[in-house]
Specification:
The complex is a heterodimer.
Chain A (H helix, E strand, L loop, with lengths): L2 H14 L4 H12 L2 H17 L10 H19 L9 H7 L3 H11 L8 H10 L2 H13 L3 H8 L3 H18 L4 H7 L1
Helix pairs in contact in A: 2-3, 2-8, 3-4, 4-9, 8-10, 9-10
Chain B lengths: L2 H12 L5 H11 L4 H20 L6 H27 L4 H20 L9 H18 L9 E2 L3 H12 L13 E11 L2 E10 L2 E9 L9 E5 L2 E8 L2 E8 L4 E8 L2 H14 L7
Antiparallel strand pairs in B: 1-2, 2-3, 3-4, 4-8, 5-6, 6-7, 7-8
Helix pairs in contact in B: 1-2, 1-3, 4-5, 5-6
Classes of the chains: A mainly alpha, B alpha+beta.
């Protein structure tokens, strides 16, 4: 048995995958909403990544790769556990998307300075987002991924990533209760 | 740049996705009006809030260790599989043995999720399946995958303590027709463990010693033996037995192919001989 070979793989795993543990956990926490579920999700993700590590040929893509695994594990688990928060289908999303002009008009009405919002409210608002929007927001703000990388992870076109981000942020703003009247009272 | 174009570009601007030229256009537009700077300020505030929230949570300390231990254990299993294949080149019977062990391991892992629900898969799977699988791998072939070969329990005990920092009582079975073959570092239920291999009653018996596992005694049938709750289980032809030494806070887990009642006898011998100061 080659102990050096074993150590090498574990070392590669620590160097190229485990460095993203913080971000993986933070995204997992906001996907699942539960610390224990998040730990399970991250652990399973890491184990799968380790088993498939030899398939990772392009090391700079390690982050996108491991987040794709995280998403895959999460979706599989979500399907297996019907009691989990219901996921909406992509058809539902497409049907509900505002037209560009509607979105712009809405944006102007809603784009007002944010009041000081408690971070806890932000967390709760993120958890309320339907999964496709939550994924996009989390990947952007926690993972720090580019639109192109997010498109790879989510297996959607870049334009869809942008739409989901736009709509997700707009929904966050709505959840956070930002309205002109409240703004005026906060001033 | 018009105001509409500006609104469309805000997300990309804040997400650092715009070209230098477009960034300059956005900056120029911000100087040309009053509404758009407020829109930008508002959107930037949301981004800041999300960024602040993003770094709030710290990874629970034990999670990293748990992951490293699990991948190391996974690598143990993979390395053993590779070793079995390498050994198979030494002779037709060794090859057959290694292949059977590998096949049994795969079948075992595949069948574990199909166990009856009444048994409570979450209770049974972690310890019993891992124990059975590792027994098949470690004890297969003409030579077991041992890191330390000795028939002297005290020497084995000192080696294990040095390697894992675990206070280790290695059962002495010399007087009962048993013999220690050696051991290695392993893991069980996500905890570091010392693996011991015995020859007893004409067969190979695996014994893992690790720290107590909260769910370790669930599943299987328990019975009190010498004041200790002994759990007996059988999984795909592998007899399993485990018990806890509560004073030591340690879990002992044994596995062997064959009759569970035989393994019960082995466990009993271990419990009795595991006491310190057992004279030769």
């Amino acid at each position: 048995m080659s102990l050096s070979g074993e150590n090498d793989k574990v070392r590669r795993f620590e160097k190229h995958i485990l460095v993203y543990l913080d971000d993986l956990y933070r995204v997992a926490l906001r996907l699942t909403g539960q610390a224990t579920d998040a730990e399970d999700l991250v652990q399973e993700t890491c184990l799968r990544a380790f088993k498939a590590l030899d398939q990772l040929k392009h090391l700079p893509a390690a982050k996108v790769w491991v987040f794709s695994i995280l998403r895959s594990v999460f979706l599989r688990e979500a399907e297996r556990r019907p009691s989990r928060r219901a996921l909406i289908s992509l058809e539902d999303i497409d049907a509900s998307l505002l037209t560009r002009s509607e979105a712009l008009r809405d944006a102007y009405e809603g784009f007002l300075p944010m009041r000081q919002t408690l971070l806890q409210e932000t967390r709760e608002a993120i958890l309320k987002l339907p999964l496709p929007y939550r994924e996009a927001v989390l990947l952007a703000h926690i993972g720090g991924f580019s639109y192109r990388e997010m498109a790879q992870i989510l297996s959607v076109p870049t334009g869809t990533v942008m739409s989901r981000l736009f709509r997700g942020r707009r929904m966050l703003r709505a959840y956070l209760g930002e309205r002109p009247s409240r703004l005026e009272s906060a001033r | 740049m018009t105001c509409n174009e500006f609104v469309r570009a805000i997300d990309a601007y804040l997400d650092d996705e715009l070209s230098v030229l477009d960034i300059l256009r956005v900056h120029a537009h911000l100087l040309s009006g009053e509404v758009c700077p407020r829109v930008m300020e508002s959107e930037a505030a949301l981004h800041s809030l999300l960024a602040e929230d993003a770094v709030r949570d710290q990874v629970p300390g034990p999670l990293r260790e748990r992951i490293v231990r699990r991948v190391a254990a996974e690598e143990d299993v993979e390395a053993l599989s590779r070793t079995s294949v390498a050994r198979s080149r030494r002779g037709p019977f060794a090859a057959l043995s290694a292949l059977l062990a590998a096949a049994a391991f795969v079948v075992l892992l595949l069948l574990v999720p199909l166990l009856p629900e009444s048994r409570g898969p979450r209770d049974l799977v972690p310890l019993a399946a891992e124990l059975a699988a590792k027994h098949l791998l470690y004890s297969s072939g003409r030579e077991a995958a041992l890191e330390m070969r000795t028939s002297e329990p005290d020497e084995m005990s000192r080696w294990g303590e040095r390697r894992l920092g675990l206070s280790l009582k290695v059962p002495r079975l010399d007087g009962a027709g048993g013999r220690l073959v050696g051991g290695r570092v392993s893991s069980l239920a996500d905890a570091p463990a010392v693996y011991l291999l015995y020859e007893w009653g004409g067969r190979r018996v695996s014994l893992f010693v690790t720290r107590s596992v909260p769910d370790g005694r669930r599943g299987g049938s328990e019975r009190a033996v010498d004041g200790v709750e002994l759990t007996i289980e059988a999984l795909r032809g592998v007899a399993l037995a485990w018990w806890e030494e509560e004073d030591e806070g340690q879990l002992y887990a044994a596995a062997s192919t064959g009759d569970p009642s035989g393994l019960r006898e082995f466990a009993l011998l271990c419990m009795r001989s595991g006491q310190p100061a057992t004279p030769d």
